[in-house]
Amino acid sequence: MTTGIGSTTAQLIERHRPTLDRALDAIRTREFWSPHPEHPKAYGENAAEEGRAAFDALRGSRFEVPGQPVSGEWTATEVSPYGLEMGISYPRADEGALDALLPVMRAGMSAWRDVGPEARAAVCLEILARISGRTHEFAQAVMHTSGQAFMMAFQAGGPHAQDRGMEAVAYAFAEQVRTPESAAWEKPQGKRDPLRVTKEFTPTGRGIALLVGCNTFPTWNGFPGFFASLATGNAVLVKPHPRAVLPLALTVRIAREVLAEAGFAPDLVALAAEADGDGIARDLAVRPEIRVIDYTGGSEFGEWLEANARQARVFTEKSGVNTVVIDSTGDYRGMLANLAFSLSLYSGQMCTTPQNLLIPRDGIETDAGKKSYDEVVTDLGASVVKLLGDDTRANALLGAIVNDGVRERVDSAPSLGEVALPTREVENPEFPGATVRTPAIVKLDAAKPEAEAGYLSECFGPVSFAVAVNSTEEALALLRRTIRTRGAMTVSAYTTSPEVEREVQEVCFDEPAQLSLNLTGGVYVNQTAAFSDFHGSGGNPAANCALSDAAFVADRFRVVEVRRMTEA
Amino acid sequence: MTTGIGSTTAQLIERHRPTLDRALDAIRTREFWSPHPEHPKAYGENAAEEGRAAFDALRGSRFEVPGQPVSGEWTATEVSPYGLEMGISYPRADEGALDALLPVMRAGMSAWRDVGPEARAAVCLEILARISGRTHEFAQAVMHTSGQAFMMAFQAGGPHAQDRGMEAVAYAFAEQVRTPESAAWEKPQGKRDPLRVTKEFTPTGRGIALLVGCNTFPTWNGFPGFFASLATGNAVLVKPHPRAVLPLALTVRIAREVLAEAGFAPDLVALAAEADGDGIARDLAVRPEIRVIDYTGGSEFGEWLEANARQARVFTEKSGVNTVVIDSTGDYRGMLANLAFSLSLYSGQMCTTPQNLLIPRDGIETDAGKKSYDEVVTDLGASVVKLLGDDTRANALLGAIVNDGVRERVDSAPSLGEVALPTREVENPEFPGATVRTPAIVKLDAAKPEAEAGYLSECFGPVSFAVAVNSTEEALALLRRTIRTRGAMTVSAYTTSPEVEREVQEVCFDEPAQLSLNLTGGVYVNQTAAFSDFHGSGGNPAANCALSDAAFVADRFRVVEVRRMTEA
Fold it and tell me: Is there a shared CATH topology between the A7-318+547-565 domain and the A323-517 domain?
């Protein structure tokens, strides 16, 4: 039932329907497509400057969310990993404020439901378009909360995150229109008149969706759940990570503006900022009003959510242990360069960064001859050193260490095993306060039981393990065990053997995990492209969903059928 | 990746693809369609006799499942509600047998995955075709386990269940082919060569799916989960209700035969029968091998599964309290006749049977003039009496009471309130051992707090409550509260007021629940048609899924992506 589409909404449909159709086509073919340019310069001559100015204007001020019921208290929790003074205060969501807010959010859902999937998609795409128009401002916000280097904050926090948001909108739309708005059902009854029933089908959101944001990729990991929930008729309450509020607070404010302009209740999207230690996600997650939860972060709280927030559909991306199986290669230099980049990007602070490199202790066959375990490790270390030898380039790749926990982890790498490549502190001339570290590589031996404590735990940050194994068969068994018990967002393998290729695929099918084979050149295991690559499999302990597929959206709404006898 | 389709499988695809396409069309338009005839005579002149003979041959014997690892013990737990001696023994699944069985089931999954979604759908449709060919045998099996009258056992246990199974196959196929088998991804790099990646996408089952069957609708409620799981690449372990083993045991044996003939491991489908009190579902449900669970039955175990079987995706249909809001009607006699039938069918032992009839205490407007609360209740009772006045017709509609619990419930109806229509014992001349009861109607007053204990609990069986309310507004508030706190598989309403119609829809959108409006004639609130009606909403406590929609199938498999640099 699609009713009451205001003129603004009709305009939005007209404006965005071609983009929606193109996105629907992309998720069907999974060929390359993106409507969001990756180049900073594509956003206009003054866009970079304006974005930085907009960001600077936010610093040291109160971030108002006009119209949203708030407590009157303010909270400022962000700390730029680059040492920049943030000082942005957000309305603190205490229990009283949330008690006032949730019913108001719920109240907006009827009109949001009635307008139908196409209008909801159009409103979502308008929100994305306005976010896209402010990509440089978002880039600054992401950079100074996550510690990503500028170009990565720009791309992953901007166009790539917007792509993932749009992908979720496309899936949400596709799922909702699989059932028609109405059907004329006519069942023959032999010689008697047929039974005639008129049926109407209305996709209806489950309730209020809670988005629990993360520190390292606030937009990239936040947009899919945000837009999937909103596009399927839910209200969305955004609870950012206290260290990465701004990117999602901007998102909330933009969404509220668009919703209001289109004639909907702005409170369909709201911000729940907290003070350090408030822990409001835990309270919110079990409130009966919350019917959908998206979470990215550590496994402990993710598992708590899955166990306790049983009134809600819970989508989690938790931690995992990513493996590279190194069996053999036809491009030794390409492999080393590719791996060096993967380990270095954002100082390994990606849920997709390889952690365990499984290398046969007897070495591997390569196009450059047989390479021993030690040679592979040494050569990989040399590749990292070469990649990051220039400090400007190193800073541009590594970004900053996001918090002290990660810094302590890399500093304590020597306690885990023999350091093959030590971490190096890099100066950042532009931001002297930044903690910048090159990745460390630690040697471990799978034959030693005590090594397990290292390679079978997630070691988030710039530490990876070169694990010596007896054979590729042993590597595959360890891969299987690692995915099954620890989860994996990514698996990567290098081999020239069709048989090994088949075997590693079999492991990834069984467990299941996403596999990249023999990557060299400019495609990296830790990067996935919206509309084409799945992020996570949703089938192992690292995540219970994939970004994005039908399962990511199909249970965020329910279809209510109303049936009546057809009038004669 | 679709490989290794044997010639038999190719033949099955050729045979069943047109049916699959027709089913895909049906779930898209939701117009009437069924490939399974409802009339017993459509199955051939001797089919009824042959079916009964086949059933009789099974009675008093051991039901072998050739090839399946078993314990060597046998268990016979079925008791025909018609008093017929069953005496069918099934292989008892003890822990040792299950320990041997589960790895064998898992081992069959690789080939089942590799063959691809189309072949899996074709094998499933072949299983359904063979089940369809034995519909009369299934009818006897369903009748003598559930207590359904013959015609209902035939239709609901036969063609309607087969429709629901096929619907699940269609959804499973549609979801799996939404992602292409492969994609050529080419990302422009300005003046440099584009990045080229070849991507393969393989739907892969989660693992072993556990089907926990129910007593009253072993096939109708069992087939959707069974076929959804099998069609998406999982192995399926069938744990029938101890009182309704045969319909699912036949299903397992037929499925194993088809799988073997098509070249797959027959152990992809297996039977886990138990002795009374074994409670193996509880143990199985938390085993790590079990990754999907389908359950129909009481809320207590359903909620236990949702809370504890966290390694699995759990789909539950539990109990609920179904409401009829009676505000006004333009067809008083039609309403009464329709309700009388709904209350009587299978003695109210359907999860969709109305329980609470909410009637304004000041009466309702009808085409036959104003009717007081008492008149409505009295007239409804008279309609039931008239419908069931003839014992032959009564037996044909009511079937038998499935177990002593239901019998005790209806016998104790007078303790719940003033009995407006007492239950009546009906003799069944063909099966003198059958317990046959007409529905009781008990008056309750919503103004009396003690009445809540009655109408706010599920009272499964032939007892319904005529609840006096102050107004339709109060009825709607109670409807909302009932759905939200107790769940509802169905909601029904009678009104001539567009405003009330709008309001009751709003409640059903909000909570969400499936709504039938002003049903008269031959369409009943407790019946839903596959390919068109959703059974349950999946959005209230009665069930966490709907039969069937994309959400019912989309998370039973995961898509594993394998990507490689494209060869130059």
Answer: no
Q: Which residues contact A288 (CB under 8 A, 6 or more apart)?
A: A311
How is residue B331 written in tokens? Answer: 């067809």
Q: Which of A225, A310, A299, A306 is nearest to A535 (CA)?
A: A225
Torsion angles phi and psi, residue A403, rounded to 5: -160, 175
Tally A–B CB contacts below 8 A: 193
Note down pLDDT in tens along chain A; length 568 residues.
344 567 789 999 999 999 999 999 999 999 999 999 999 999 999 999 999 999 999 999 999 999 999 999 999 999 999 999 999 999 999 999 999 999 999 999 999 999 999 999 999 999 999 999 999 999 999 999 999 999 999 999 999 999 999 999 999 999 999 999 999 999 999 999 999 999 999 999 999 999 999 999 999 999 999 999 999 999 999 999 999 999 999 999 999 999 999 999 999 999 999 999 999 999 999 999 999 999 999 999 999 999 999 999 999 999 999 999 999 999 999 999 999 999 999 999 999 999 999 999 999 999 999 999 999 999 999 999 999 999 999 999 999 999 999 999 999 999 999 999 999 999 999 999 999 999 999 999 999 999 999 999 999 999 999 999 999 999 999 999 999 999 999 999 999 999 999 999 999 999 999 999 999 989 999 999 999 999 999 999 999 999 999 999 999 999 999 999 998 6
In chain A, what are the domain boundaries? 7-318+547-565, 323-517
CATH topology of domain B7-318: Aldehyde Dehydrogenase; Chain A, domain 1 (3.40.605)
* Residue in B518, B558, B561 nearest the CB of A564: B518
Q: CA-nearest residue of chain A to B309?
A: A307
Contact criterion met (CB < 8 Å) for A29 and B178:
no
Query: Do A538 and B546 make contact, defined as CB atoms within 8 angstroms?
Result: no
Residues B512, A560: C-beta atoms closer than 8 Å = yes
Mutate to test the interface with A, among B160, B308, B515, B555 (most CBs of A within 10 A): B555
Q: Which of B174, B195, B522 sits opposite A195 (nearest CB)?
A: B522
Which of B173, B182, B187 to mutate: most A Cβ within 10 Å? B187
Output phi, psi for A301, to 5 deg. Answer: -70, -35
Beta bridge partners of A184: A198
**DSSP SS3 for B279:** coil
- The CATH code belonging to domain A7-318+547-565 is 3.40.605.10
Ramachandran assignment for A4, one of left (phi > 0), alpha (psi -120 to 50 degrees), beta (any other)? left
- Tell me the CB-side half-sphere exposure of residue A32, using CA atoms within 13 A: 12
Query: Min CA distance, B303 vs chain A (Å)?
Result: 10
- Judging contacts by C-beta atoms under 8 Å, the chain A residues touching residue B193 are none
B204/A510 Cβ within 8 A: yes
**B380 and B340 in contact (C-beta within 8 Å)?**
yes
User: To which residue do tokens 């996550």 refer?
Assistant: A146
CB contact under 8 A, B521 and A565: yes
Q: What is the ipTM of this complex?
A: 0.97
Which residues on chain B are in Cβ contact (under 8 Å) with A167? Answer: none
Cβ distance of B532 and A506 shorter than 8 Å: no
* Residue tagged 């079978």 (tokens): A456
For residue B512, give how far its alpha carbon lies from the nearest alpha carbon of chain A (Å). Answer: 7
Evaluate whether the domain defined by A323-517 bears CATH number 3.40.50.2000. no
CA distance B289 to chain A (A): 11
The CA distance from B549 to B487, in Å, is: 19
How far, in Å, CA of A537 to CA of A541, rounded? 10
Nearest of A245, A247, A25, A266 to residue A123 by alpha carbon: A266
Interface test with A, best of B2, B105, B185, B481 (most A CBs within 10 A): B185
Q: Which residue of B has its CA nearest to A206?
A: B539
